[in-house]
Amino acid sequence: MKVAALLDENINIGEAFLVALIAILLVFFVLAVIIFITWVLQKGMEIINAKTNILPREENKLLSEDENAVVAALVATTEYYRETGKNVRIVSIKRIED
Predict the structure, then answer these.
(1) What whole-number distance in Å separates Cα of residue 85 and Cα of residue 82?
(2) Mean pLDDT on 56-81
(3) CB 64 within 8 A of CB 98
(4) How far apart are CA 88 and CA 98, in angstroms?
(5) DSSP code of 56?
(6) Which of 29, 9, 5 is nearest to 18 (CA)?
(7) pTM confidence score
(8) Helix, strand, or coil here: 41?
(9) Hey, is 10 helix, strand or coil?
(10) Which residues 6+ apart lie within 8 Å of 77 measured at CB?
(11) How far apart are CA 75 and CA 96, in angstroms?
(12) Which of 3-7, 8-12, 23-27 has the lowest mean pLDDT?
């Protein structure tokens, strides 16, 4: 089949089905390649995660346990930035009991 046949207005139904079938197969092939690539990358990340043992820092344990501490830290940094105009970075968070 020539490329010119695809542009020809006198294409018969068999050629039209063949073109549609090739296009559908091409789409499914590309999807299969994308699925395979993501599967390989996911397996690679699982291997890397199994080999690395990343533990949270001591000062971040409070943030993982208490959602209110995260909100309080964000509000405090936002207010400090509004008042001073300086860039803010949280270095550590410590709970102060009343």
Answers:
(1) 6
(2) 76
(3) no
(4) 26
(5) P
(6) 5
(7) 0.45
(8) helix
(9) coil
(10) 88, 90
(11) 17
(12) 3-7
